[in-house]
């Protein structure tokens, strides 16, 4: 029980009291109305429940293990605690619903209901009276939250904290999408809203008994895993991988980096999607269209600078912090100087690929949330992924080359980003400028082909790599 429960009580009470002022039905129907509001369950109750259960994430210490004769009893205790908490959690919601409903006519019939028409039809055909619907809905909430909480505890044992939170976050996003996108809601066993919202099992391709069977089977699978394979726990400390590549990987890929990337992409994606109705394919084209040579639109130019500049800036910060000093830690992890060059180039490719894939994924999610028509030209999408990856690789490789030659990170970053400024001149040969080569305007308005744009980027990339190969030794000699 955490302080988050108090926040849940406050929000749910205010919502219930606000609805109570305009409600015209009877007591039992209003209680049913409150505990079947799937928006409250999904957007308020479930996040608070996850926050509370996350407090159980901890490695067993010696005192806890000494008190247990067998390890499975330790996990069983956590499961029982989670189940008890689920009873209390749902019980609080039920008590608030009953308290707010006091004063309404004490009838137990289906007349004058303000429930959703479709949901009302399913409840009337399934339950004889509203109180019976309330009882089964509350029991289903308790069973669903207990199952989800125990699953969280099991995942926390077999996986690391980051992996567990990532899976829970991913499943929560799928649950939100299932409300608006029908085909997502029909994915079996994955949409966790079907485990906690009873009336979501009245529609779709699989019915209530399938959900119950899934809960039973997955619960027995967890019990079997704990009994037989409890010692398979990657959550325990592991040996660090040797080598410079893994050393730099742990340095570069941090929560801060991912949060900065996601924030900038989401802001740009929402600003593009909010004010127009179009297909998903047109939305992708508008996002990656860019500017023709010789034209200047301030907002579009700023959007492109933010989108391209974000990964380039994070890479330049990595160079300044971990490559500029050329400290002893790096020298201890390499046998040849060429390995350092190869490792940094490898991370340039990794940064570009992940950034572009992350962009396309976020654009797809934002497009679905804003009801964009699900029409996608896959050939164009594949080209966008490839050409934007090439563009980012070229720009970061140019930055890396300038850094090796000048030994100045800020100067190299500004010189690299300034390549976008020369695109304001209406000169045809500038269409081959690698800065902006991934903009679709180059193909449509300059008459270039996809192969031409990809070829020039690849040629520039090879030239930069050759320069880096020649200058790497002098870079180390300066250090």
Characterization of the model:
With 479 residues, this protein is mainly α. It is globular. It has 21 helices and no strands. Helices cover 71% and strands 0% of the residues.
Chart the SSEs and their pairings.
Elements (H helix, E strand, L loop, with lengths): L2 H18 L6 H9 L2 H16 L8 H5 L4 H30 L16 H10 L3 H29 L2 H20 L1 H4 L7 H4 L11 H22 L14 H9 L2 H19 L6 H10 L8 H26 L4 H5 L4 H33 L8 H29 L2 H9 L23 H6 L3 H29 L1
Helix pairs in contact: 1-3, 1-5, 2-5, 2-7, 3-7, 5-7, 7-11, 12-17, 13-15, 13-17, 15-18, 15-19, 17-18, 17-21, 18-19, 18-21
The helix-and-strand class reads: mainly alpha
Order of helices and strands: HHHHHHHHHHHHHHHHHHHHH
Question: Which range best describes the helical content: under 10%, 10-25%, 25-40%, 40-55%, 55-70% or over 70%?
Answer: over 70%
Question: How far is the first residue's CA from the last residue's CA?
Answer: 56 Å
Q: Give the integer mean of the pLDDT values.
A: 82
Number of helices: 21
The share of residues in extended strands comes to: under 5%
User: How many strands?
Assistant: 0
Low-confidence stretches: 235-240
Largest sheet, strands/sense/barrel:
none
- Any idea what the shape is? globular
Provide the gyration radius in Å. Answer: 28 Å
Keywords:
0% strand; globular; 21 helices; single chain; 479 residues; 71% helix; mainly alpha
């Amino acid at each position: 029980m955490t302080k988050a429960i108090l926040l849940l009580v406050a929000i749910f009470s205010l919502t219930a009291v606000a609805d109570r002022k305009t409600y015209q039905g009877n007591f039992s129907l209003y209680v049913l109305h409150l505990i079947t509001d799937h928006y409250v369950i999904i957007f308020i109750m479930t996040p608070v429940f996850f926050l509370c259960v996350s407090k159980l994430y901890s490695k067993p210490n010696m005192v806890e293990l000494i008190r247990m004769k067998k390890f499975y009893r330790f996990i069983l205790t956590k499961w029982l605690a989670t189940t008890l908490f689920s009873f209390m959690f749902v019980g609080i919601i039920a008590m608030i619903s009953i308290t707010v409903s006091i004063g309404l006519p004490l009838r137990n019939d289906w007349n004058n209901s303000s429930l959703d028409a479709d949901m009302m039809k399913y409840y009337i055909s399934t339950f004889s009276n509203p109180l019976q619907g309330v009882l089964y809905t509350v029991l289903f909430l308790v069973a669903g939250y207990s199952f989800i909480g125990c699953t969280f505890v099991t995942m926390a044992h077999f996986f690391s904290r980051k992996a567990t939170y990532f899976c829970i976050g991913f499943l929560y996003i799928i649950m939100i999408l299932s409300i608006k996108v029908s085909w997502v809601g029909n994915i079996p066993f994955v949409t966790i809203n079907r485990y906690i919202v009873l009336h979501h099992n009245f529609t779709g391709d699989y019915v209530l008994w399938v959900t119950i069977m899934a809960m039973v089977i997955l619960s027995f699978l967890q019990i079997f895993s704990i009994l037989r394979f409890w010692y398979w726990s990657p959550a325990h400390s592991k040996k660090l991988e040797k080598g410079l590549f893994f050393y730099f990987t742990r340095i570069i890929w941090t929560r801060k980096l991912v949060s900065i990337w996601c924030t900038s992409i989401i802001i740009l994606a929402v600003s593009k999607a909010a004010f127009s109705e179009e297909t998903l394919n047109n939305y992708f084209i508008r996002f990656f269209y860019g500017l023709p040579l010789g034209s200047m639109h301030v907002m579009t130019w700023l959007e492109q600078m933010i989108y391209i500049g974000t990964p380039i800036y994070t890479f330049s910060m990595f160079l300044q912090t971990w490559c500029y000093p050329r400290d002893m830690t790096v020298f201890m992890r390499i046998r040849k100087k060429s390995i350092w060059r190869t490792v940094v180039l490898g991370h340039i490719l990794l940064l570009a690929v992940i950034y572009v894939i992350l962009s396309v994924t976020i654009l797809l999610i934002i497009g679905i949330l804003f009801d964009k028509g699900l029409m996608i030209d896959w050939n164009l999408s594949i080209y966008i992924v490839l050409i934007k990856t090439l563009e980012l690789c070229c720009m970061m490789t140019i930055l890396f080359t300038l850094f090796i030659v000048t030994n100045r990170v800020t100067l190299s970053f500004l010189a690299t980003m300034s390549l976008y400024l020369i695109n304001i001149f209406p000169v045809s040969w500038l269409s081959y400028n690698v800065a902006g080569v991934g903009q679709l305007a180059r193909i449509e308005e300059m008459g270039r082909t996809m192969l031409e744009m990809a070829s020039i980027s690849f040629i520039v990339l090879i030239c930069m790599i050759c320069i880096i190969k020649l200058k790497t030794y002098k870079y180390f000699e300066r250090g």
